[in-house]
Design a protein that fits this description.
The complex is a heterodimer of chains A (880) and B (113). Chain A has 880 residues and is α+β, with helices and mostly antiparallel strands. The termini of chain B are far apart. The chains are: A alpha+beta (880), B mainly alpha (113).
Chain lengths: 880, 113
């Protein structure tokens, strides 16, 4: 080895020593080594010997240094080792404190990763922050709507502030060639769509320019999930063909598994992707293409360009394409939203995340409360423990352990608890996030991107650290103060500590009350929704939503189909009645009609259901005024039914409305009765609705077949399905579900929030109870002698119980009061989550306050009762 | 004071005739023991620090007759009175051990006289 190398090696060797030693003897050691090196002639052997020599010497120097002045590292390790030992000696305490912190840290970490994944992180596309959806606005909808094909072409010809524009259209096809024919929604995309979103092919290729030409061979790209589940996940899938509306499409590529399509614009579909040929569409049917607004225009703005510029530009393009004089082509086919009034651009992020962000932040706030409770609880546990170890600490202090040393020791315990809590909490968080992904609560976007990653882990560690500081510092300082205190001042200080403990119990209770109240309100609301009168009898009801294809079903064929189907279903043994309707008379409107109620000047778009007269009986509709439909209504003078919401909206305050008229599509219908409001999601405000008898020639649109069964409607599903298949094996739009399942789906989200908050509240209450219990138990133990003396002097035991109880119940009651006051002040945050009750619902507040007080009382009762059983003789023996 | 290790003893012995610098101590020990006791540069200075800390030796000014080494300035050390006493104690103890061993003829037949 050469001296230049060796000098580096030397420097490195010297680094082994403490700085002081290095600075003092470094030069001499270097000179000495150099002389040795010259004499020995170098070589590996020499350096190996030197290395050994210096490692040993440096270790010796360092050891001696530590022995002298307590090197920081060494004491830290010592402290941790001591702390670990003393924690091992108290397994119950350790388990409690660790679990407490783990629950708090786990919940916050899980909530953080959801908030982070859904709202904080940019969408997983290149330059996603410059992605906007641009489109026309209408009087009733100020959001950017979909564009027509000519508009899309216009925007592409004149991009303005946009760097790139792509289009997405949700197709509507029958997929065949893979088992039974089925309804499919292939995503039709313009050129450059995939590179715009940064998507790449896992197998094969994506679309090129030539694929978008009208003359091109038909090709399809499939999602990774589709390829795996439907195509067997093997290479031979490439080159196979899938039939979309009987047109063969060659499978040319498979998307990467991690590509997340822009779900806000297309729902969770995205299995099949086909090229969109804009120019070809216009050439084929220019009038229709000008009228139909179904394509989403997604742009990436040039750096520095603003959404306002894009909006102004899009307005100009709309005027250029449609002109200003004629508004006719601007009319949307989507009834009710009206003519185009301008253009709007919204960030893709905003559209994707939407309102969920505020909900998630609410959840995050809730779990932060939980973490705060956990910290207060851990602090209170540590305090109790420190108090119980007062003797040990006093002895240690007497032996010369300084105040700093004691604080360090207690902090070391807190650090270990924090580390254990963090580890366990991370595990809990991982479990919750995995579970969350599995149960897919309704309305949470970007679930597919959700994972517990480095950011969440860092967050968890930070939370653990914060928890340690919050929970460890106060008890440590307190304990150190006590251990060094002279005996004479003990009682004053004890009172101070009693106050501190009471404050902790109160704080914990107050925080828990907030969470329990939130959960109570949500659960109460949910219960009210479930119990709310739906206006019909949902149990035993089955609905089959069936759409017949136009081309194969003329009026007569459709009538025949429905007749045969209804007769077939009615013949099933568990079916009592079957009725057809143009749409479900509850839940979301699929159909609205231009209706003018008597006494109103303008027609409005109002939900309308065409129904067979037997539907009232099948559903169990309640007629609140007049009568329901009869068979003869179908052929006689036009009649209609309205619901209660209709009366309230259009004829408010009228006692009797039967006999009035409504104009449906400009034709007068006489109102013969009023039916109760019906809803699939109880509590969601019922809309005004008009019903009229179902005439012939149905089946142009989807039809709902409503079936009332005597038993479990699920049992009828296979038989109804078989019946439909027998009548027409090629039918794809058949959707069978029980009304109960629709109810459950509609309640999924409120139920999810109620369950989520209830579990938070449960944990919070548990922690508060543990805190109250621990504090009472400690106080009772500390006063054992006093209690013993008083019992010996004849104090009744019940009085002792009451006194011990009162000490805990007072801070609990104060906590409840503060918590309730805080909740009242902040009740607004829950307003939009509650439908049936007010955010200041008095019964809920009362019940929660009583519950928490009772829980606190029970928690305190056990140690209080134990204290009263103290044997006076045994306590007095201490004095002997 | 605990028993002195061989290395420490040899280092103290090197300083009996007067102050030496670190490297000279090492050379002296190795020469005197015929290379049986070796002092690596690390062990040497660790030992020096230990002896200084234990007040057995102390740093002194370089003797006036010492030629400049051309290298870094060297520190010289001499035995303290405590060091001399410790050395003497140790040698006396060893002497007793040797005498006892000889009297028991550990080293074989002793010539009479």
């Amino acid at each position: 080895m050469n001296p230049p190398h060796s000098s580096r090696l030397l420097r490195w060797l010297l680094r082994l020593y403490p700085r002081a030693h290095r600075e003092r003897y470094g030069d001499e050691i270097r000179a000495c080594l150099r002389s040795d090196w010259k004499r020995a002639g170098g070589g590996m052997g020499f350096w190996a010997g030197a290395l050994w020599d210096h490692v040993r010497a440096a270790a010796a120097v360092r050891r001696r240094n530590h022995r002298g002045s307590e090197g920081a590292m060494r004491t830290l390790l010592d402290d941790l080792r001591h702390a670990a030992r003393s924690l091992r000696r108290a397994p119950t305490f350790t388990a409690f404190a660790t679990l407490t912190l783990a629950l708090g840290i786990g919940a916050t970490t899980a909530a953080f990763s959801v908030v982070d994944g859904v709202t904080l992180r940019p969408l997983p596309y290149p330059e996603a922050e410059r992605m906007y959806v641009v489109g026309p606005t209408r009087p009733l909808d100020k959001r950017a709507g979909a564009v027509s094909t000519p508009l899309m072409l216009g925007l592409q010809r004149s991009p303005g502030p946009a760097e790139e524009i792509v289009g997405l259209h949700r197709g509507y096809s029958v997929l065949s060639g893979l088992g039974d024919p089925q309804r499919a929604y292939p995503m039709e995309v313009t050129e450059g769509f995939f590179s715009f979103f940064g998507a790449t092919a896992a197998r094969g290729r994506l679309f090129g320019r030539e694929d978008h030409l009208a003359t091109a061979e038909r090709v399809v790209v499939v999602s990774h999930a589709f390829w795996r589940s439907r195509l067997g996940g093997d290479e031979s899938a490439l080159g196979r063909t899938l039939d979309l509306d009987d047109v063969p499409h060659e499978i040319v590529g498979v998307l990467e598994a991690d590509f997340v399509p822009p779900e806000a614009l297309m729902g969770l579909d995205g299995d099949l992707w086909v090229p969109l040929d804009l120019a070809g569409r216009v050439a084929a049917d220019s009038t229709n293409e000008a009228m139909v607004y179904t394509t989403w225009a997604i742009v990436r703005l040039r750096p520095g360009a603003s959404a306002a510029e894009l909006e102004a530009h899009a307005s100009r393009v709309i005027r250029n394409v449609y002109g200003t004089s004629s508004t006719r082509p601007l009319r949307s086919l989507d009834e009710g939203s009206g003519d185009i009034v301008g253009a709007s651009a919204q960030s893709l992020y905003q559209i994707t995340v939407g309102e969920v962000g505020s909900v998630l932040w609410r959840v995050f706030a809730a779990v932060s409360l939980l973490l705060a409770i956990a910290c207060v609880n851990a602090a209170s546990l540590l305090l109790t423990r420190a108090a119980e170890r007062a003797q040990e600490l006093t002895v240690r202090a007497a032996l010369g352990a300084g105040r700093r040393r004691l604080v360090r020791h207690l902090l070391a315990e807190a650090v270990l608890l924090g580390a254990a809590g963090s580890t366990l909490g991370t595990l809990l968080a991982w479990l919750s996030v995995t579970t969350l992904r599995k149960i897919e609560p309704g309305g949470l976007p970007r679930l597919g991107e959700l994972e517990l990653d480095g950011r969440a882990l860092a967050f968890s560690v930070a939370m653990g650290f914060a928890a340690v500081l919050l929970s460890g510092l106060v008890p440590a300082l307190r304990a150190a103060a006590r251990s060094l205190r002279s005996a004479g001042r003990q009682s004053t200080a004890d009172r101070g500590e009693g106050r501190l403990r009471a404050t902790l119990v109160g704080a914990e209770t107050g925080l828990a009350v907030l969470l329990v109240l939130a959960a109570g309100l949500l659960a109460h609301d949910l219960a009210r929704r479930v119990l709310d009168d739906p206006g019909y009898r949902p149990e035993g009801l089955l609905s089959a939503s069936i759409t017949l294809p136009y081309d194969r079903y003329e009026d007569e064929a459709a009538d025949a189909f429905w007749r045969e189907l209804v007769d077939g279903i009615r013949a099933l043994p568990i079916v009592t009645s079957v009725s057809l309707a143009s749409q479900l008379p509850m839940g979301r409107d699929r159909m609205r009609a231009s209706i003018r109620p008597e006494g109103h000047a303008e027609s409005e778009m109002i939900s309308m259901v065409e129904m067979e007269s037997s539907l009232g009986e099948t559903l169990g509709l309640r007629v609140v005024e007049g009568r329901g439909f009869r068979d003869e209504d179908r052929d006689g003078a036009p009649v209609a039914l309205v619901n209660e919401a209709f009366v309230e909206t259009y004829w408010p305050g009228e006692a009797w409305v039967a006999g009035r008229t409504v104009q449906i599509f400009r034709r007068d219908h006489r109102v013969v009765g009023v039916v109760a409001d019906t809803r699939v999601e109880p509590g969601v405000g019922p809309r005004p609705r008009v019903m009229r008898p179902l005439g012939s020639g149905i089946g142009m649109d989807g039809v709902e077949v409503l079936v009332r069964t005597t038993g479990d409607p699920m049992e009828a599903i296979p038989e109804v399905r078989a019946l439909v298949r027998r009548l027409d094996p090629a039918l794809v739009d058949v959707d069978l579900r029980t009304i109960a399942s629709l109810n459950a789906a509609a309640l999924a989200r409120p139920r999810f929030y109620a369950i989520l908050f209830s579990s938070f509240a449960g944990v919070a209450l548990l922690l508060a109870v543990v805190g109250a219990y621990g504090t009472t138990a400690h106080a009772a133990r500390a006063r054992t002698r006093e209690i013993g003396i008083r019992i010996a002097l004849g104090a009744p035991r019940s009085r002792v119980v009451v006194e011990v109880l009162a000490r805990t119940l007072l801070p609990v009651a104060a906590g409840v009061a503060v918590g309730v006051a805080g909740a009242l002040a902040g009740s607004k945050v829950l307003t939009d989550a509650l439908l049936m009750i007010e955010p200041r619902d008095a019964p809920t507040y009362g019940a929660v306050a009583a519950l928490v007080l009772m829980a606190g009382g029970l928690a305190a009762l056990v140690p209080a009762a134990r204290a009263s059983r103290v044997d006076p003789a045994s306590t007095l023996r201490f004095d002997a | 004071m605990t028993a002195i290790t061989d290395r420490t003893l040899q280092m103290l012995l090197s300083l009996v005739d007067g102050p030496l610098h670190g490297y000279a101590i090492k050379q002296d020990v190795e020469a005197r023991t015929g290379g049986v006791v070796r002092l690596g540069s690390g062990t040497l200075y660790e030992g020096i620090v230990r002896l200084v800390d234990g007040r057995l030796i102390q740093e002194v000014d370089a003797p006036p007759d010492e030629p400049a080494s051309g290298g870094p300035p060297r520190r010289f050390y001499e035995l303290t009175s405590e060091g001399r006493r410790a050395l003497a104690d140790e040698v006396r103890r060893m002497d007793e051990v040797v005498r006892f061993a000889k009297s028991r003829r550990v080293l074989g037949e002793e010539p009479a006289g």
